[in-house]
Amino acid sequence: QSVLTQPPSASGTPGQRVTISCSGSSSNIGSYAVNWYQQLPGTAPKLLIYSDDQRPSGVPDRFSGSKSGTSASLAISGLQSEDEADYYCAPWDDSLNGVVFGGGTKLTVL
Amino acid sequence: QVQLVQSGAELKKPGASVKVSCKASGYTFTSYAIHWVRQAPGQRLEWMGWINAGNGDTKYSQNFQGRVTLTRDTSATTAYMELSSLKSEDTAVYYCARNVLGTTQLDYWGQGTLVTVSS
Questions:
Q1: Within 13 Å and on the Cβ side, how many CA atoms surround B43?
Q2: Residue of chain B with shortest Cα separation from A28
Q3: pLDDT tens, A50-63?
Q4: What is the mean pLDDT of residues B6-25?
Q5: Terminal CA-to-CA distance of chain A, rounded, Å?
Q6: Facing residues of B50 across strands?
Q7: For residue A37, what are the β-bridge partners?
């Protein structure tokens, strides 16, 4: 069981906007930047958002991140079929003294 | 371009050890850290530890303390993860990932190495 809570699943239709939440505590999200990773089926994770709301080069601006207190969110607008993947939030954690991953959210594009 | 290429799949018996390699290219190896993350079948990602490729400093997750050893060979620009006393629960895909020192994001990942532990 992860110290970060994500909904196990989310869904939307093409073109819709979907939001995935990540709830933590003062030892992780409340104190450190949140990174988000996208894992397409059968592939390695890919950095999607870093430092709460920054997109690496090549990541479409349809993906955005935000943080407030001990919670963070990933928003995907203009949903596309290729967005179907697992999404993980991952801040640093003081208790673990390392990276902690959320339980992951499986996004389905209907 | 930055690449992390990992060694191939392994089949091990319970109690044995496994050593996975992660060959880095396309950047200055010693200016970054390498983290190791594993994923059991159908499960979430789990952080194992990291090594500063420059000075060799390491930090391990408490969940693996005593069983995991991270090393690197700067001349070969390769990082290694060795896990000992393997159990069936260690069956997972093991990933290496690059990290900019002083930050927390893992910006490039290896393709993963499947380690199967079975008698």
A1: 16
A2: B104
A3: 999 999 999 999 99
A4: 98
A5: 28
A6: B35, B59
A7: A47, A88
